[in-house]
Amino acid sequence: MAKKSEGAKLAEKLTFEFPNIAKASPKDMKDAEKFCKGYMAFLDEGKTERECTAAAERILKKAGYTVFDPQAQYQAGDRIYYINRGKNIILTTIGQKPLTEGVKFNIAHIDSPRLDLKPNPLYEQDELAYFKTHYYGGIRKYQWGVTPLSMHGVVMLKNGKKVEISIGEKEDDPKFVISDLLPHLSAKQNERPLKEGLRGEELNIIIGSLPYQDEEVKEPFKLMALKLLNDRYGITEQDFFRAEIEMVPAVKACDIGLDRSMIGAYGQDDRVCAYTALMAAIDVKKPKHTTVTVFTEKEEVGSPGNTGMEGRSLEHLMEDLCDCFGVKPRDVYRRSMCLSSDVNAAYDPTFADVYEKRNSCFLNHGPVLTKYTGARGKNGSNDASAEFMYEVIRCMEEENVFWQIGELGKVDEGGGGTIAVFMGDMDVDTVDLGVPVLAMHSPFEITAKLDVYYTYKAFKAFYK
Ligand code: MN
Ligand code: MN
Questions:
Q1: What is the domain partition of the chain in residue ranges?
Q2: In the predicted structure, residue 223 carries a pLDDT above the cut 70
Q3: Dihedral (C-alpha) 447, 398, 30, 260: value to the nearest 10 degrees?
Q4: Cα-to-centroid distance, 435 and ligand 1 (Å)
Q5: Torsion on CA atoms 27, 56, 391, 76, rounded to nearest 10
Q6: Fold exhibited by the domain 114-249
Q7: pTM of the model
């Protein structure tokens, strides 16, 4: 081989490019494959924030975690968890160092864009029974027509009994669907702007087409649907007023590509970071700093309320934990570090013009470290400091973790936010780190297995 030129040597020394893991370390595919089996099962088990919390609790109990008791004495290595209103789970491993040296937070969200039932959802029209929906989070409405949907949620009966609903996930379960026009009759609809391809009030879900057999009944199709729900769950029409019911894609997680290198599934934003964070927390048994892993929700609507990160529930729990050790929360926060673990938009060659390629993340290049989010002039963003970027990058490099840097898209193309800003507000150094996703917020999102696996490795490196 010819000797390298001076310029080539200098370029090697001074310039940098993030490698494709599949090229740099193809042997990792086997471990990634194995890791992702558990992830895909987790996705299928938890299609809502409540189901996801329950799935995490089941895994944690198996790993020996116990419920947090504010009156108890804890010591290094103790593993505890806390559930907030059935929708958030917070797990902690007590570190070797005192809390006042800071804790390591890793926060992912387990809510995903979906169609919620309206409070008064059931109706019939022209001999079909329907549910009225109100979409939750940022969806492109036209993507939700003619795709099989399943029904999940809880209903509080008048007598105070809680009923859990799940229809459409089992092999022989019926599914539900929103209809769309045939091309032969869609000339007028085709003229609509894409964002109105299907309008909010057109996201009506077909749930039945058979009438209750009785000439005297005014709305026999609606009654038939109600009767079937009543047979299965004991619910009546007024029980919908005391319910939270979410309609989500009925599709199961599956391999994508001839090489099976990718995963297609609903709700990977952000359950991919939740699962990887959970596994990292479980696998780091003796962390130096106390680790606090949080599954939050309401992120897709701006994180408000008592189960979202803008709310106080994590602060209150941290106060309880600090009381156990007789320390002040503020002394803990100001020395703490947080990964806001959330997905970013993977570069999509088909729609290349919305991305700025030099600052985009790519499938198979590992988790993406996103210094800031926001829109336009970094509006509403948490912008991580150089010092904190140093810390997080150092953790990953020390453990030979592949990772990449990235922004969401072109500067004026759009924007988005994560929970990072709320942790920043709590006086905690925070940065976004997560998995690149194609077709984010669609009913069927795509990730690469190597990225999922290396996100887990990055989280482990951070917690070590
Ligand atoms: Mn997200
Ligand atoms: Mn999202």
A1: 16-112+266-463, 114-249
A2: yes
A3: 20
A4: 10
A5: -110
A6: Aminopeptidase i, Domain 2 (2.30.250)
A7: 0.97
109 CA → ligand 1 middle, Å: 7
pLDDT tens-digit profile of 427-443? 999 999 999 999 999 99
pLDDT tens digits, residue range 9-35?
999 999 999 999 999 999 999 999 999
Cα 340 to middle of ligand 2, angstroms:
13
Burial class (CB in 10 A: 0-12, 13-18, 19+), 346: buried
Q: 210: pLDDT confidence band, cut at 50, 70 and 90?
A: very high
Nearest alpha-carbon partner for 403 in 324, 321, 331, 460:
460
Residue 39 Cα to ligand 1 midpoint, Å, equals 17
Centroid of ligand 2 to alpha carbon of 113 (angstroms):
7
In the numeric block, which tokens belong to residue 84?
A: 């907030």
**How does DSSP assign 192-233, residue by residue?**
S-GGGSS-GGG-PEEEE----S-TT-S-HHHHHHHHHHHHHH
Query: What sign for the dihedral angle of Cα 178, 182, 187, 190?
Result: positive
3 state DSSP class of 176: strand
43 CB-side CA count, 13 A: 31
pLDDT digits (tens, 9 = 90+) for 383-413: 999 999 999 999 999 999 999 999 888 888 8
Q: What's the CA-to-centroid distance between 14 and ligand 2, angstroms?
A: 36
Give me 134's structure tokens: 């109100």
> Taking a C-beta distance cutoff of 8 angstroms, is the pair 406, 370 a contact?
yes
Is the domain spanning 16-112+266-463 CATH 3.40.630.10? The answer is: yes
Cα separations in angstroms, 148 against 145, 174, 203 = 9, 9, 13
Tell me the C-alpha distance between 372 and 355, whole Å: 16
At residue 132, φ and ψ (nearest 5 deg) are -85, 135
- Give the CA angle between residues 151, 37, 407 to the nearest 5°: 80
